[in-house]
């Protein structure tokens, strides 16, 4: 029996290694995680704001999947956030106060809304698609306003309680449990999205974004994959909405509003589309600056955010994550040159030492 040729195995390993490197967490992940831990340890007075930031990061990640990775334009992403929020609130009010079950309920209902609306929205493109997403969100907003016997309309859905997390950790008034709960959910969502965008499905969707016709000619079912991603993103937005309903103990009609859809678009524009880091950075900057600027000037804080957005779009069209990438690209060559210089110096010293030994009698 002839020995097996190892070359195909080596080639296969060479193809697998880049995929594994793409899924590996980087230094920026560690920085963000350390910042989250430091917030919990040293910023007790801002845990409510920090929890809202974590929820908005999940929401921005879901929009980034739709717009940044699949190229679907939307102005009605709040439809899924609000659907998940109302589903979690009604689930806690009428079925069970368990937070994890409520989280699942919010994700399932939002995914259903995404599936139904996606069948209509994804048949068109461009301005028509944008207007259809806005129409779907507006219809849900009006339905929530009219069905006051269910949603309580403008007064907001209240009167429900959330049971202790895992039966042990109660939601205290200081927000410790809510923050850790939101952080844990965010970590799970982030790892899932990181895996998704680097999976064969995610890479195919990115190919559809670049050239849907070519991917269709390659045998990829473009419409089905776009609908699947749209539904998954809706489920993640529903998770964010369910978290909001559980930690705030109220579901306002604003969770379905155009304002929320516009805000998350601004977050993504600030951070950078098509990058998961961009969604996180954009949500952090938008939420923190909104809170601080509104505290300084409650009247004109939106104008200040508008100026910030103009500056970012003008000088960093690819968002804040683009600035981070350019800074890292500048630092890396300098570090590489320093390393090469040190290696050359070490080599020269070794040669000099060898020469000295050779001439020593």
Automatic annotation (TrEMBL):
<keyword id="KW-1003">Cell membrane</keyword>
<dbReference type="GO" id="GO:0015658">
    <property type="term" value="F:branched-chain amino acid transmembrane transporter activity"/>
</dbReference>
<dbReference type="InterPro" id="IPR001851">
    <property type="entry name" value="ABC_transp_permease"/>
</dbReference>
<feature type="transmembrane region" description="Helical">
    <location>
        <begin position="227"/>
        <end position="245"/>
    </location>
</feature>
<feature type="transmembrane region" description="Helical">
    <location>
        <begin position="178"/>
        <end position="206"/>
    </location>
</feature>
<keyword id="KW-0812">Transmembrane</keyword>
<feature type="transmembrane region" description="Helical">
    <location>
        <begin position="75"/>
        <end position="93"/>
    </location>
</feature>
<dbReference type="InterPro" id="IPR043428">
    <property type="entry name" value="LivM-like"/>
</dbReference>
<dbReference type="Pfam" id="PF02653">
    <property type="entry name" value="BPD_transp_2"/>
</dbReference>
<dbReference type="GO" id="GO:0005886">
    <property type="term" value="C:plasma membrane"/>
</dbReference>
<feature type="transmembrane region" description="Helical">
    <location>
        <begin position="265"/>
        <end position="289"/>
    </location>
</feature>
<feature type="transmembrane region" description="Helical">
    <location>
        <begin position="100"/>
        <end position="122"/>
    </location>
</feature>
<feature type="transmembrane region" description="Helical">
    <location>
        <begin position="31"/>
        <end position="63"/>
    </location>
</feature>
<protein>
    <submittedName>
        <fullName>Branched-chain amino acid ABC transporter permease</fullName>
    </submittedName>
</protein>
<feature type="transmembrane region" description="Helical">
    <location>
        <begin position="301"/>
        <end position="317"/>
    </location>
</feature>
<keyword id="KW-1133">Transmembrane helix</keyword>
<keyword id="KW-0472">Membrane</keyword>
């Amino acid at each position: 029996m002839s020995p097996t040729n190892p070359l195909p195995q080596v080639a296969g390993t060479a193809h697998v290694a880049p995929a594994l490197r793409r899924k590996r967490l980087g230094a920026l992940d560690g920085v963000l995680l350390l910042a989250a831990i430091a917030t919990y340890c040293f910023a007790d007075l801002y845990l409510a704001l920090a929890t809202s930031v974590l929820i908005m990061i999940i929401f921005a990640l879901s929009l980034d999947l739709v717009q940044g990775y699949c190229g679907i334009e939307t102005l009605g992403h709040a439809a899924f956030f609000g659907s998940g929020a109302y589903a979690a609130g009604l689930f806690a009010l009428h079925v069970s106060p368990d937070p994890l079950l409520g989280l699942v309920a919010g994700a399932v209902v939002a995914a259903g809304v995404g599936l139904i609306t996606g069948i209509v929205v994804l048949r068109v493109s461009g301005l028509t698609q944008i207007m259809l997403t806005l129409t779907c969100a507006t219809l849900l907003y009006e339905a929530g306003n009219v069905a006051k016997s269910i949603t309580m309309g403008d007064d907001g859905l209240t009167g429900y309680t959330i049971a202790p997390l895992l039966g042990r950790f109660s939601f205290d008034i200081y927000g410790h449990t809510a923050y850790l709960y939101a952080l844990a959910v965010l970590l799970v969502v982030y790892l899932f999205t990181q895996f998704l965008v680097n999976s064969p499905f995610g890479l195919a969707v990115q190919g559809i974004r670049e050239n849907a016709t070519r991917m269709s000619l390659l045998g990829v079912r473009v419409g089905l994959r776009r609908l699947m991603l749209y539904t998954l993103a809706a489920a993640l937005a529903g998770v964010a909405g369910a978290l909001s309903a559980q930690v705030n103990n109220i579901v306002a009609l604003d969770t379905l509003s155009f304002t929320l859809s516009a805000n998350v678009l601004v977050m993504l524009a600030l951070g950078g589309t098509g990058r998961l880091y961009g969604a996180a950075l954009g949500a952090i900057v938008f939420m923190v600056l909104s809170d601080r600027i509104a505290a300084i000037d409650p009247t004109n804080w939106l104008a200040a955010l508008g100026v910030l957005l103009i500056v970012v779009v003008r000088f960093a069209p690819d968002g804040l994550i683009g600035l981070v990438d350019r800074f890292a690209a500048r630092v890396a060559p300098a570090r590489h040159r320093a390393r090469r210089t040190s290696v050359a110096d070490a080599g020269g010293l070794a040669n000099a030492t060898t020469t000295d030994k050779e001439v020593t009698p």
